[in-house]
Amino acid sequence: MLYFAKKILHFLTSNSRHGTHSPFVYSLAEQIIYSRKNKRNKESLQAAIVRYFEKQGYTQEQFCTLSLIDYTVEELVALQEKYFMLFVELPHRHASEPLWQQLQRDSRFVVLIDLFELGIICKRKEQRKEYFKLRYPYWLY
Predict the structure, then answer these.
(1) Integer Cα distance of 109 and 138 in angstroms
(2) Alpha-carbon distance 71 to 51, whole Å?
(3) Three-class SS of residue 16?
(4) Which run of H or E residues covers position 8?
(5) What separation in angstroms does the CA of 41 have from each of 38, 117, 139?
(6) Which residues, in sequence order, are bridge partners of residue 113?
(7) In whole angstroms, what is the distance from residue 32 CA to residue 60 CA?
(8) Three-state DSSP class for 129?
(9) 8 A C-beta contact, residue 132 and residue 15
(10) What is the pLDDT of residues 2-42, one digit of tens each?
(11) Against a cut of 0.85, is the pTM above it?
(12) Which of 14, 78, 95, 105 might form a disulfide with 135, Cβ 3.0–4.6 angstroms?
């Protein structure tokens, strides 16, 4: 029940793509996250994001999917250096949420996108640190 309440709170306090002030995140939201062409589950969303960035020259090996309960902050810093993008499964589950909140405050993690059931970490040296809480419209598809 608490998880469901957190999901409703996330929906009420999150933004759509129009609430972002980053061209990088806005483009990702516009082209992939809010695209009606993609199926509405975490796996198909991740695959669509990877395909989107592969067209920009990134490779499959530059993406990693993980669960926060398996890592420390320092290990995540090292993974962020190794990969272009980290997909975090269920960052708001009870065991994962404290670490997810810590990553939001840590200056070494530049771009964090929170879709509630999926978190995205992307290191972008050309961007200032920002945390994006986006509304993911599961019910529309």
Answers:
(1) 27
(2) 26
(3) coil
(4) helix 2-13
(5) 9, 9, 11
(6) 120, 132
(7) 17
(8) coil
(9) yes
(10) 878 888 888 888 776 666 778 898 899 888 988 877 666 77
(11) yes
(12) 14
Q: How many CB atoms lie within 10 A of CB 57?
A: 7
* Closest C-alpha to 47, from 123, 128, 118: 118
What count of other Cβ atoms lies within 10 Å of the Cβ of residue 102?
Answer: 13
- Determine the Cα–Cα distance for residues 94 and 61; give it in Å rounded to an integer: 29
119 exposed, middle or buried (CB, 10 Å; 0-12, 13-18, 19+)? buried
- Kindly give the interhelix angle for 73-82 and 97-105, rounded to the nearest 10 degrees: 60
> How many angstroms separate the CA atoms of 123 and 84, rounded?
7
> Cα 106 from chain centroid?
16
Q: Can you tell me the distance from the alpha carbon of 88 to that of 96, in angstroms, rounded to the nearest whole number?
A: 10
- Residue written as token pair 């902050």: 73
Q: Is the pLDDT assigned to residue 83 strictly greater than 70?
A: yes
Token pair 């309960």 is at which residue? 69
Report the distance separating Cα 21 and Cα 137, nearest Å.
20
Euclidean distance between the first and the last CA atom of the chain, given in angstroms as a whole number: 24
List strands edge to edge, sheet with 85-89. Answer: 63-67, 85-89, 118-122, 111-114, 130-133
pLDDT band at 63 (very low <50, low <70, confident <90, very high): very high
